[in-house]
Amino acid sequence: MKIAHDATRRQRSPQFFLAVILITAASIPGFINLIPSGSALLSTFIIDATAAVMLFAAMATLLRRDSHAAIGGWVVALVVLTAVYLALMFGGTEPTALELTTFRNVVLYSYIAVFMAYTFDDRREIDALTNLVLVLAGISSVFGILQAVLGNRLPLWLLRPRDAEVFGYFGTDITRSNGLIGNTIVFATYLTLMIALTFAKYMVRPQKRLIVLGVILLAAVYTTFSRAAIVGAAVVVALTFVLSRRDVLRAAVRLVAILIATSAVAFAIYAIPAARLAAANSFLYQQLFLGNNASVQGSNAGHALDIALGVQQFNQSPAIGVGLGSQSQISTLSDFGISITDGAFWSRLAETGLLGMGAHIAVALTTIVFAWRLWRSSRRTNYLALAYISYASYEFAVAAFVNSGYYGKTPFVLAWAFFGLAVATGRTETTEGDSPGRGRSQFPERSDVKSELDRLDA
């Protein structure tokens, strides 16, 4: 009887297999799109179909839940965002198909989190999904590094995704990696998310393989030559370290001390003539960060133009914006060269005005605050919540002002999946009727939790 019972417990649920399909399609879309499928992108079709099933399944689950299944404020914020976008679709200037595409990309994919949060209740399945994500991240990262190292020696179909261009730099033979996930910026954003997840898991459950994966991810970030991602990798690691400590203030002081010591060592090394000459000839320092490259200068000018266009269009209609989809590369405004091709914050502000931006900010704040409560109430073992806090904080506060990588299909879908799984993890660790961070939780001691987590990973 015990053997039969254990076998039953090991059976995977339907939602697990649905999540596997979604995560796989989102993590390696370029390889899936190599399968002939006409003009359509097979990975996008799989993601859309899976997300649609998840949306209806989540609604059905919430409607039949008992009263103790409390709905978080982040769900309410998502519903408000949905209502705002539906309202803004009426009277818009762009074709309905383009408005619906924007609605899908910005709003509907978010409901993946609702599905994950309220249909998963088995910690083993959650850990299995997380491990799958990390394995696929390792594969994509290694492939991205090979793209940068081998460059044009690879066939074009291994360099160029079907929905993006290959990026490089003027006057160099540098091929910026993209992992076939999208353009380089989307890939770099995805890597930032994976670094947040890897380091957060390491802080809770130290393992040598996570160190190896972290090194590979950092190397892959370098091959993208994305300034936002290079800075972002450092920021999410620092945030994760500080927030993972019981005494956050003391951890912050320690981090500052480490940064000062590192800076002192760097200045000492820089004082050596050979090191100074090497820095002067370094592409990363001289051309990328100091901007002494025509491509980098063009990128900087493009960012400045996007900000100016965003403010200009916002001023035309501050309350409700100039219309959904208006900042797309195939919009009516793009024909006149006045759409924003980069900078998620500016494009959302221009499209939806203060009404939409207020709804977006509400979603950002409620999810980050809820994730923080999950992290604290789990006695610092819910690494998915910690990873989401670090990643989302950087993306919303910094990266969204300079690029639109956050809304890239892969990082956007996976970030919401992580947040939903973090909520599901919190649900498995709290008593019925308690909300994370508020009610009394039936937690084992931290050592027991870590032992159980290590057993699940075995």
Low-confidence residue ranges:
1-8, 431-458
What is the total domain count? 1
Helix content: 55-70%
Class by alpha and beta content: mainly alpha
Q: What is the oligomer described by this structure? A: single chain
Query: Using only CA atoms, what is the Rg?
Result: 23 Å
Number of strands: 0
**Average predicted local confidence, pLDDT:** 84
Fraction of residues in β-strands: under 5%
- Label the overall shape: globular
- Report the sheet with the most strands, covering strand number, pairing sense and barrel closure: none
Specify the number of helices.
Answer: 19
What is the straight-line distance between the termini? Answer: 24 Å
The H-and-E topology, N to C, reads as HHHHHHHHHHHHHHHHHHH
Note down, in words, how this protein is organized.
This protein has 458 residues and is an all-alpha fold. It has one domain (14-64, 82-246, 282-457). 68% of the residues lie in helices and 0% in strands. It contains 19 helices and no strands. It has helices spanning 2-10, 14-27, 29-32, 42-64, 73-89, 96-106, 112-119, 123-150, 184-204, 208-224, 227-244, 248-270, 273-280, 283-289, 294-316, 344-377, 383-397, 409-429, 446-457. Helix 5 (73-89) runs antiparallel to helix 6 (96-106). The two termini are 24 Å apart.
